[in-house]
Design a protein that fits this description.
Blueprint (H helix, E strand, L loop, with lengths): L1 H12 L7 H4 L18 E12 L2 E9 L10 E2 L2 E3 L7 H13 L7 E5 L3 E3 L4 E9 L13 E8 H4 L5 E7 L7 E8 L5 E2 L2 H13 L3
Parallel strand pairs: 1-7
Antiparallel strand pairs: 1-2, 1-4, 2-3, 2-8, 5-7, 6-7, 9-10, 10-11
Amino acid sequence: MSYLEKIEWLKQRLRYPLPGLEAQEHMAARVLPMPPVVPKDARPSAVLCLLFPVNDELQLLLMKRTPDNTAHSGQVSFPGGKQDPHDTDLKSTALREAYEEVGIKPAEIEVLGALTPLYIPVSKFHVFPFVAFAKQRLNYELSDDEVAHVIELPLPVLFHTDRKTTADVVSPAMPQVIRNVKAYKLEDGTIIWGATAMIISELEVIIGEY
């Protein structure tokens, strides 16, 4: 199975220097300007970028957030959220949030490594992305308060040139402003932008090295 070879390669690759900001900037879109340094009041948070096979092709798990009038209300994102005091580390945060939001049990997955952290000025989240792998599609248990539905995307489909575009978007944090931003646009019209698109962009650059 070639996807297992790719996963093993990715696990090793994530131990070495990452493409980082340069790769993230390919799909950068910001509501507020990026400060020169991450502020001291930034809120540590973590997300889980889960890969799994369907018909021997790797898929990436995303979710559509339930509209709730917060800074990222209704947007497409990875499972994740802010670090709680009882989390032992940020990887634990990613695993806990993935379980709480979509029902992914830590025992069902293997964390392969981390991508480059990024700061989101509009919500003051300092996001630490972790890449994980499940041997098969998992059964989801969605948190109705946080998740409208999940999105499963084959990597070749998501990374195809036709999926990259610019789109007019409105941030829930500043609903009076329409911005034209870099984004991934799915066949059904779903727009993926902001921090989620930047994380995907770095993952795309890394996997493109394979």
